[in-house]
Amino acid sequence: MNTAADRNEAALTTQQTLAGQTVVVVGGKTGIGMGVARVARAAGAKVVVASRRVAPLVERSDLAEFAQVSLDMRDESAVQQVFEEIGALDHLVVTAAPDLGTWGSFMDADMHGVRNYLEGKFLGSWACARHAAPHLRAGGSITFLTGGMAVRPKLGFTAVTSAFAAVEALSGSLALELAPIRINTIRPGFVDTDMWGFLPPEHRDDLRKKVEDTFPARRAGKAEDIGHAALFLMTNSYVTGTVLEVSGGETLVPSVS
Ligand SMILES: NC(=O)c1ccc[n+]([C@@H]2O[C@H](COP(=O)([O-])OP(=O)(O)OC[C@H]3O[C@@H](n4cnc5c(N)ncnc54)[C@H](OP(=O)(O)O)[C@@H]3O)[C@@H](O)[C@H]2O)c1
C-alpha cells in the first residue's frame, strides 16, 4: 500500500520544475543549446547562456530572457574564471561544439583540424565540467551532448566519432568520480538547426524530407525535443551515468546524410 510518504516521494521525483535554480548552457545561444535554454527557462530556471559571441539584444531579442556570457571553452583559464564569476549553479549543460570543419580523410597529413575538433568538443566539455563542479549546489547535474556518430561512424568524420565516444566515456567516468553530482549525456539524432546551414537550401530540404520519410518518428527533430530530454535529466534525481538517445529512431534505419 502506498503511504503518504511514498506519494510525496513520487511527487518529488516526478516534478519538472527548476524554479529558483540556475542552469548554465554552454552553447546555449543557438541551435540545440538554445532549445535546452528555452525549456529550462520555461521550467522556471534562471538561465545563463555561454559561448564565444555575445549578441547585442537589438540583433537577438530572443536572447533577452537569458544572461549572456562570453566563453571560449578551449581556453581553460577562461572557463575557470567564467564559472568563478557565475558562482553557485544547479545544472550545467554543454552542447557547444566546433564547426564540423574540413579535415578530410584519416590519412591526411595535416592533423590541425582534428586537434581543433577534439580540443573543442572533448577537452572543452572536460574543462567546463572540471570548473563548474566545485560550484554545483547539492542535487546538481552535468549533461553533455554527442550525436549518433558516437555509435555509427561515417566516412570522413573519424574525429567526430572519436570525440563523441570520448565524451560519452567521460560522462560515465565522471558519474563515479563526481558522485553525487549526476552526469549524463544526450545523444541526439538529426535536429533541424542552423548547424545544417552550410548545406544549399535544396539539399537541406531533401535531407529533412528523407528524415520525415524514414525515421520511425516520421518527423525532423527540434531543438526543444533535446531540451525536453535535458529537463528530464536535470530533474530526475535517480538518473546518472547514462547516455540518452533522442533521435526519432535514427539509428534503426539506414543513414540519410
Ligand atoms: N543539429 C543536429 O542535427 C545534431 C545532431 C547530432 C549531434 N549534434 C551535435 O550537437 C552539437 C550542437 O549542435 P547545434 O545544432 O546546436 O549546433 P550549433 O547551432 O552550430 O551550435 C554550436 C554552438 O557551439 C558554440 N561554440 C562553438 N565553439 C565554441 C567554443 N570554443 N566555446 C564555446 N562555445 C562554442 C557556438 O557559439 P559561438 O559561435 O558563439 O561560440 C554555437 O552556439 C554539435 O556537437 C553537433 O555535432 C547536432
Automatic annotation (TrEMBL):
Keywords: Oxidoreductase. It comes from the Bacteria. GO terms for molecular function: oxidoreductase activity. SUPFAM superfamilies: NAD(P)-binding Rossmann-fold domains (SSF51735). The keyword Oxidoreductase applies. The keyword Iron does not apply. Pfam families: adh_short_C2. InterPro entries: NAD(P)-bd_dom_sf, SDR_DHRS6-like, SDR_fam. Belongs to the short-chain dehydrogenases/reductases (SDR) family. This is Short-chain dehydrogenase. It comes from Caballeronia grimmiae. The lineage of its organism: Bacteria, Pseudomonadati, Pseudomonadota, Betaproteobacteria, Burkholderiales.
